[in-house]
């Protein structure tokens, strides 16, 4: 319990090239901009930078997955009324590509070629050697086209995301520069401190193997040198094949994997079947941060909440 309490205390807490579409200036730039983020983790970073200015809205509600989302009329109205829209890119929010090509808002796309190729040179053999066995007969391959778009799970990338959002907002809303600068400095110092503490906490767990439901955590796992042995699925909208599930079951039964992680956005029934009758533990991780409060320190709270199950489940 002492180790877990120590981990919980970590809440105390590269420049990323980015793509921006600049519309014509809005009529009154002295008013706070209306900001919409595509997913909650992006909203959390934006809310820290915009603390004291405006509270950004989010498009996807808690519990929704960008892999399976379709815009509703209320979403379209939100985009229409936005001054700024921040998203990862079509590799994650494919449903936003067309609407954002037609908007008059300032759009900030965070996943660029530089970020795509960061850590993407080699595809991990554990995840893709048997890719043909991952899905049922209707499966048709990887939803991300070989790209890991979950960039917010790596703290270094989160710092770069904050830099990108800050630079875009300062350029388009210069009257907010002083407060944006102050918020960015606070965000950066706090996250660097938290990252160092997390790195120290995870160091003794680097040889503890585990499985995940969705192949989405590569950037987090690589950053903290953790040992993922496989995933239930690459594409969460496809059912995993029987052969692949059998291989995962063998991994658990041989005690190579001490923990299997599920996600709140998807059914945990398959995970339960993999560990049934074994000593492996099951825990839930939420890569979309659906219960985090906005404002200063929001992303750091998300990172601590996301990291906690890994630490607790992997600890001997």
Describe this structure in words.
The structure is a single chain. The chain contains 12 helices and 9 strands. Helix 7 runs antiparallel to helix 8 (177-202). The chain is globular, with a radius of gyration of 20 Å. The protein is α/β, with parallel strands linked by helices and 316 residues long. Strands 1-5-4-2-3 form a 5-stranded mixed beta sheet. Helix 2 (40-49) links the parallel strand 2 (35-37) and strand 3 (57-58).
* Shape designation: globular
Q: In what range is the share of β-strand residues?
A: 5-15%
State the order of secondary-structure elements, H for helix, E for strand.
HEEHEHEHEHHHHEHEHEHEH
Q: Please give the oligomerization state of what you see.
A: single chain
Q: Give the averaged pLDDT, no decimals.
A: 81
* Uncertain ranges: 1-6, 11-17, 24-28, 120-143
Please summarize the sheet with the most strands.
5 strands, mixed
Helix content: 25-40%
Number of strands: 9
Q: Gap between N and C termini, in Å?
A: 12 Å
Count of helical regions? 12
Q: Radius of gyration in whole Å, from Cα?
A: 20 Å
Helices and strands: which structural class? alpha/beta
> What spatial order of strands do you see in the largest sheet?
1-5-4-2-3
